[in-house]
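Section 5.1 Outputs to date
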Amino acid sequence: MKKILVLLCIGIFIGSGFSGSAITNNDTECWGVVVVALDQSQQPYIYDALLRSSNWDTDHLKILWKENATREAIFSSLEWLSDNADEGDIVLFSVDMHGTYSNGSYGIWPWDGYENGMITVDELDVKCDNITAKGICLILDCCLAGNFVNPNGNLLCKSALKKDRFQKSVSAGLEGNNRVVIMGTMPNGLGAHWVDYDATGEIKSDISPSSTLSKALSNKYDENQDGSTSAEECFRYLKKDYRKYALMAFLNIPLQISMYLIYGYIIKPFPTLYDSYNGELPLVQ
């Protein structure tokens, strides 16, 4: 079936302009929220992948699926994480949705965004700062995600020696201690999904950063053979496995011109990473 590129940007912009670390501590619990508010997404890929692992339980993992992914529900789920996660725990917060820009702020577009507004990066950061955990992984599968952490920072998985300098250079965004942020785009870039339609015109499947990351989690991608799949290993798998789709979108000149004329940005669906976790942040074992 024909593959069609579906942009992850919201249809309107409002306003202006390698050390391993396996999960070995029996006291460590994993808490997570997976938000899917993009119509083209066919499955809660990351949610399903996490539940296939022995260290994730259904009562420790929430799914906000499409019409349930409202602004209020997203804030409530972040508060649920902060209420339940302890200092020795691991937290994951994943979004598969539209990214947007409004009045000088970047953010995500909940299902009820036209009624209740976007959720800004600053609002997300305040909620994440309230979460006490050993490590926090944020997965941002949306347009403009590369702007959710200061673009002058650690976007290409640089060495740990450069992290101190990075921490001093940033001024705003989702950066924070013991935090790994996987972003689906480069700074100032739109993201993309590749969608398969069946003979009736219904969406059959889609290829996206979220679905690709779920393969790393489900297959327990373990480069360093430490018995766990880390957030960093998932990022490296994503960069490698998603590359051909990113290049096909990036090199489509007519599409790039139209996107720039409509949105003021071009498609840059190349994953980027911010990493302030000491070692590698384990997600599944």
